[in-house]
Amino acid sequence: MIVVDARGLRCPLPVIRLASLARDANPGDEVLVRWTDPAAEHDIPAWARMRGHTVLETRLPQPASGEAGPDALADEPSGATLVRLGPG
Amino acid sequence: MQIAVVRAGPGPGRGQAVVAQAASVARVKRTYLDAGGRAPLHPAGLAAQTAALDEGWADPRRLHAEGRRARMLLDAAREVFAEGLACRPEEVHLGPSHTVALQHGLLGIARGRRRAGSGIVLSAVERAALHAGAQLVAERHGSWTRPARPGHARSEEAAAHPGAPVPVDRVGRVDLEAWRAAVGLPGVALAVLQHANGEVGTVQPLTAAYDATQAAGVPLLVDAGSSLGHHGIPPAWDAVVADAGDWGAPSPLGVLAVRTRVRMAPDWPEDEDRWFPGGVPVPAALGAAAALRATLADQEEAEQRRRRLIGRLRDQVAQRVPDVDVVGDPEDRLPHVATFSCLYVDGEALVTELDRRGFAVGSGSACTSSSLEPSHVLAAMGALTHGNVRVTLSREVTEAEVDRFADELPEAVAQVRRSLGVQGL
Asked: Given B59, B87, B115, B295, which residue has the most CB atoms within 10 angstroms?
């Protein structure tokens, strides 16, 4: 699985990052995009629809708890979207 | 020019440079394509409002001749709104803005129906003021699930949690099956549905939605803020709200009409002006009424003309701009709204680039809103939220202006894409 770290990027950069990676990947590859911009939740599925890819799963950002793990990026909670690439 | 003087910098040449820049901006021919909620002033409205400043400046609640004259003018304005909404003048209440009229309609009916429950059923694509109002009612009463964030509703959630907004389909039409299920649940105080969505143009199946609320014995509040003056409203409502700014009134004014059979109670301190404490300025009401009367007089003609321009613009955008999502119902729509989203484009950059080329347009992209949240309407429809442009035609826009926009748009989009380094994606 390929991981795209788009945390901290504002729209439309997460989708651009994902699209440029998808250009060089193979059909059937699975890509996990991690994001903090709330528009990515809606724009990644919209991009996938326009481009013939499939969204397998979307994980919404969890509200920050008191103790942030070592993975936490600043104080912005992040979400993730898993995409399976179609015959691009 | 005013701004140039204020912002003149420390150096002697700076102020002149700013003035020169402002002058050059002024020379670009401007085309206003963002008329939703704030249309260019209708001359008939402006003339009536100016005359009313002389005749109707007094407080209409006073008993003397000046007060009575203002009262007569206010009643005349109310009759025009009643005619436009096909209801009785005593059912019409005037508020300071569309937003306040929506809030008071929602809160007043919810309080009047508090014995029935505190649930408010609304579609996922209603205005933010209505989602916030429903949330406030839910929090106050506490017995209902807090409404989900707009745009996050799924149909199974709508059935499970009465507070979640009713989902819409890809073109933004409310899911009637989910709507019927939601209004039929116990504990619903009122239902809220727009006649048409001002952001994407889609007209809602209002008559069918009203049949469902009637069968359930639930009052329906209709937001007609984007349609009155542009597209006929079916008599399928218990309360309706309209926005005078949308039809070119010179001053802000919200019109709330409530059928006399609907139980309503103020959710704010009692006042002589029960529904909008303090009332509204009589000249503003006269200006809005005259503008509405003039607008309705040739609505049919203005609707057909703009519908043709919008249909052609939507086709041209889809054909000439690569990777574009033209959103909203292609047929059942407002005559003057076209909305589309461009892939790999920053909405703010595109609005700015079009502005530089002389076009004023709206946008639902996150980067163009102060909250940095994308439009909940586009999100609920599953449409692309970035790179969004909303075109709303005023009655004055010419065919040549729309054509020029369609000619310049592809290059404006290409330019923004180049600046983001997007090629061959």
From this structure: B295
**Does the interface ipTM go beyond 0.90?**
no
In a domain, B380, yes or no: yes
For strand A79-84 and strand A54-59, is the pairing parallel, antiparallel, or unpaired? Answer: antiparallel
- The tally of domains found in chain B comes to 1
B104 domain residue, yes or no: no
Instruction: Please state which of the four CATH numbers 3.30.110.40, 3.90.1150.10, 3.90.226.10, 3.40.50.720 is assigned to the domain occupying A2-63+75-84.
Output: 3.30.110.40
Interface residues of A toward B, Cβ cutoff 8 Å, are: 10-13, 15-16, 19-20, 23, 37-39, 41-43, 45-47, 49-50
Local confidence band at B143 (pLDDT 50, 70, 90 cut-offs): very low
Q: What is the pLDDT of residue B148?
A: 46
Closest among B282, B274, B269, B271 to B256, alpha carbons compared: B274
Locate B53 and state its tokens. 């400043």
Chain-chain contact of A47 with B346 (C-beta, under 8 angstroms): no
Measure in Å the smallest separation between the Cα of A42 and chain B Cα atoms: 6
Q: What separation in angstroms does the CA of B129 have from each of B104, B123, B133, B150?
A: 11, 13, 6, 12
Q: Which domain holds residue B357?
A: 299-419
Mean pLDDT (chain B) is 90
Residue A47 among the catalytic residues: no
- Tell me how close the Cα of B305 comes to any Cα of chain A, in angstroms: 32
CB contact under 8 A, B343 and A49: no
